[in-house]
């Protein structure tokens, strides 16, 4: 319903949302969270089958977006590891491998994926949620931060040495649940009693992936970050965008993360 505009580009693909549920079992407090939980079981297998994914981590859970046309490949790839359900009229209906695998063709081996540069700004981030009934109290501030408070974008291709800070603000509203990622300085502008975070109140640092717009077609971008973090049992929230991908890791682990990703890049050359 949005009016056509020369300033708006719309990808021609329709995307479907996958969410991974662990049979109602809550992860233990020491277990890695975010994209790390599903790196080996979901992200890596889809990358191996050349399925492009968009990743959206939120305060509550993680979502994987896949193209609708890739659904047969997705079901064929994940059916051995997961029970798969689709939502129909509000009900969860089991999906068998045969249901979604019509026309499935085993993909041809692809060339090695591009190893994208990673940058780590000094900015410290918070992952937060807000009770829906308190949203009106911060609505004006949200609008200001989302649309009016940021400066002009930095020149593309800025090196990691130049990247002292980064403007990043993410707001999602999914089935009534609100998730916000903001830098620690921006958080100070909001009423502290309305922003809810984990009991530890930990801060996060960002690894930004990409030196030029990544688009939506390439496969394996999430996997090349998520797999080494999963191997090291490091929690990570991951947010895909058109221009860059962003992985948020606990502040105290940023040096290890940078070292891991640099080693991966060097071994991939």
UniProtKB/TrEMBL annotation:
Q: Which Pfam family, any one, appears in the UniProt record?
A: ACT_7
Does Repressor show up as a keyword for this record? no
Q: Where in the cell is it found?
A: Cytoplasm, Cytosol
What Gene3D superfamilies does the record point to? Answer: VC0802-like
What are the Cytosolic arginine sensor for mTORC1 subunit 1/2 ACT-like domain coordinates in residue numbering?
116-199
Which Gene Ontology CC terms are recorded? Answer: cytosol
A single Gene Ontology MF term assigned here is: identical protein binding
Name of the molecule in the record: Cytosolic arginine sensor for mTORC1 subunit 1
State the species of origin: Sapayoa aenigma (broad-billed sapayoa)
Gene field: Castor1
């Amino acid at each position: 319903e949005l009016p056509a505009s020369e300033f708006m580009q719309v990808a021609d693909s329709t995307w479907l949302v996958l969410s991974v549920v662990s049979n109602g079992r809550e992860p233990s407090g020491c277990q890695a969270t975010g994209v790390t939980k599903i790196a080996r079981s979901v992200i890596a297998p889809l990358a191996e089958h050349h399925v492009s994914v968009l990743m959206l981590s939120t305060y509550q859970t993680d979502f994987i977006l896949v193209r609708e046309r890739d659904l047969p490949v997705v079901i064929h790839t994940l059916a051995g590891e997961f029970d798969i359900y689709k939502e129909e009229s509000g009900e969860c209906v089991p999906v068998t491998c045969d249901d979604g695998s019509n026309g499935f063709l085993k993909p041809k081996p692809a060339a090695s994926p591009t190893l994208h540069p990673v940058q780590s700004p000094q900015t410290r981030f918070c992952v937060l949620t807000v009770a829906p009934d308190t949203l009106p109290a911060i609505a004006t501030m949200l609008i200001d931060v989302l649309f009016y408070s940021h400066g002009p974008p930095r020149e593309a291709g800025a090196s990691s040495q130049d990247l002292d800070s980064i403007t990043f603000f993410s707001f999602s509203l999914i089935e009534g649940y609100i998730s916000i990622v903001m830098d620690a300085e921006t958080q100070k502008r909001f009423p502290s009693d309305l922003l809810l975070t984990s009991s530890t109140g930990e801060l996060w640092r960002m690894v930004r992936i990409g030196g030029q717009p990544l688009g939506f077609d390439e496969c394996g971008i999430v996997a090349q970050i998520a797999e080494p973090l999963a191997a090291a049992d490091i929690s990570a929230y991951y947010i895909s965008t058109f221009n860059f991908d962003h992985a948020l890791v606990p502040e105290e682990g940023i040096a290890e993360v940078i070292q891991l990703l640099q080693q991966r890049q060097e071994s991939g050359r």
